[in-house]
Amino acid sequence: MTGVSGLWYISHGELLLRMLIAAVLGGLIGLEREWSNHAAGFRTHILVCLGSATIMLLSIYGFSEFVNEPNVRIDPARLAAQVISGIGFLGAGAILRNGSVISGLTTAASVWVVAAIGLCVGAGFLFAAFYATLMVLISLLLLNKWEKHLLRHRRSHDVSVKALDYPGVLGTIASKFGEQGIQIVNVKMIPEPEAGEGSNAKPTILLSFNLKVTDQGKLMMAVDQINSLDVVLWTEAGKSVVGSGASIERTH
To answer: Which PROSITE patterns does the entry mention (predicted)?
Structure first.
């Protein structure tokens, strides 16, 4: 490193320390994602943060031998910029869509933030890295609980009902939800394939309800009343999701 300014030099001990810090900070955020059973978890966040820090270290110190070359221009931010744009592809892999429900956005965002934390550690901007890690953990742990409490009355539930395809069956079933004060946000009607000629099987229809529920007990009561109807074959209640505008869709 003869003739190289101390600005472009880092000792092996400092290099190892920054990489370890990046692994620890990324692991803290990944541990929360792993605990919550998300796609990108503990190891993924460690690798992203460590990789970002290593690239930042490479960008700043990896080309120090060329600093004094008259025809070489050193730009430490060039590789860092590529990390920020390239990490989006990894985050996109954590986003899943199931019908109108999109999940994984928070995990994708956490991967992106972890990359930024790694870049901060690699550049020696340690206070920003620690502060960012603390704020991310607060957002994922504390604000997540506060958000669930705040939006508890805006949650909706999916309920599927298979029934005989008789005239007025939708109104009969929907009235049971109405009696319990449950708002129907969305309904999908999916006719079942008709049986072949000569069969005594009756035509059936699958009704998929998206409901705005404020009281879980009333939902269970409505499901029990629906199951007691002669035209209903079975009922299945799914997990809660965030509701949207009301509509009725018939799928052929």
So the answer is: ACT (PS51671)
Q: Which pTM was predicted?
A: 0.56
Rounded-to-integer distance, Cα 104 and Cα 91, Å: 9
Q: What domains, with CATH codes, occur in the chain?
A: 6-150 (no CATH), 155-250 (3.30.70.260)
- Tell me the pairing of strands 183-191 and 247-250: parallel
Angstrom distance (rounded) from CA 61 to CA 63? 6
CA distances from residue 86 to 51, 82, 127, 163 in whole angstroms, order as listed: 12, 6, 25, 49
Residue range 166-175, pLDDT digits in tens: 888 888 898 8
Query: Percent of the chain at pLDDT above 70?
Result: 74
Report H helices in the chain.
Answer: 12-35, 42-61, 77-92, 105-122, 126-150, 169-179, 216-227
